[in-house]
Design a protein that fits this description.
Elements lengths: L1 H33 L1
Keywords: Plasmid
C-alpha cells in the first residue's frame, strides 16, 4: 500500500517536473542556436 502511494506521488512529481523543465530546455536550445 505504502509503496503504491509512493510510486503514484513520484509519478506526479515527475509529470510536474517535465511540465516545468520542457520550456526551459527549449529556451536554452534557442539561446545556444542564436550564439
Amino acid at each position: 500500500m505504502i509503496n503504491e502511494k509512493k510510486k503514484r506521488v513520484l509519478e506526479e512529481i515527475r509529470k510536474e517536473n517535465e511540465k516545468y523543465s520542457f520550456p526551459k530546455k527549449k529556451k536554452d536550445n534557442i539561446g545556444k542556436n542564436k550564439k
